[in-house]
Amino acid sequence: MASKIKVWDLPTRLFHWSLAALFGGMWFTGEQGGDWLHYHVLCGEAIGGLLLFRLVWGVAGSDTARFSQFIKGPAAIRRYLKGEMTEAEQPGHNPLGGLMVLALLLALLAQVVSGLFATDVDSYLFDGPLAKLVASGASESITALHKGFFNVLLALVGLHVAAILAYRFIKGKNLVKPMITGRKQVEGEATALRFRPAWLGLATLIVTGGGVMLLLSRL
Asked: In angstroms, what CA-CA distances link 164 with 41, 54, 101, 168, 213?
């Protein structure tokens, strides 16, 4: 019997769509260059705040947001691939989806950290906020790494989108709608889930985002 259950809390959904919007903004402004790099840096700093929030929420947040809930070992992955793990048992990210989330978060974190030390090699007007802490040669090397690694990040994002499309058109599962509404329909009796209050998540987001901005402005 199918039932509609809550799977994603409001803070997790806001994180997801804010990150998607900021990623698009970061990509666009980085490609434009010039004065647009000012906004590129701001997008990167905002993403840094979001990532810090996600790390905190992945430990102290609602069940489906916690890393312990969706980052699984080889045994669980094998069960999922064999079709032995039901959606009711794992209503949030499945084990493979959990690995993709982890890979994206780590790649974004690497991209943001490298961007903090990167240099605007064209005008030197819009350096990363921490570029002044390293030698110019090192900063330029980090800049080259920052630009090159973005292709890896794009590949991961492309794989993520391809998986969503595959679920929609091959398995008939819409993964986008639950991330908008917070609810999804599953077959069978779903695992009982615990959710943190929305105000706690929003407060955490404000503190982590504001903390990152304040720290970078003082360095």
From this structure: 29, 21, 13, 6, 33
Task: List the domains of the chain with CATH numbers.
Answer: 2-218 (1.20.950.20)
Q: At what angle do helices 198-218 and 37-60 cross, to 10 degrees?
A: 140
Residue 150: the pLDDT is 95
Residues of the chain with pLDDT under 50: none
Rounded Cα–Cα distance for residues 157 and 56 (Å): 23
CA–CA dist 147, 151 (Å, integer): 8
DSSP 128: -
pTM score, two decimals? 0.92
pLDDT value, residue 33: 85
- Confidence at residue 1, expressed as pLDDT on a 0 to 100 scale: 59
pLDDT tens-digit readout, 123-171:
777 888 888 889 888 999 999 999 999 999 999 999 999 999 998 998 8
Alpha helix ranges (H) inside 61-135: 67-70, 74-81, 95-116
Residue-wise burial string across 55-64, b where 16 or more C-beta atoms lie within 10 A, e elsewhere: eebbeebbbb
pLDDT at res. 48: 94
- Other CB atoms within 10 A of residue 128 CB: 27
Burial of 12 (0-12, 13-18, 19+ CB in 10 A): buried
Residues 6 or more apart whose Cβ sits within 8 Å of residue 166 = none
| Inter-residue contact 101 to 43 (CB < 8 Å) | no
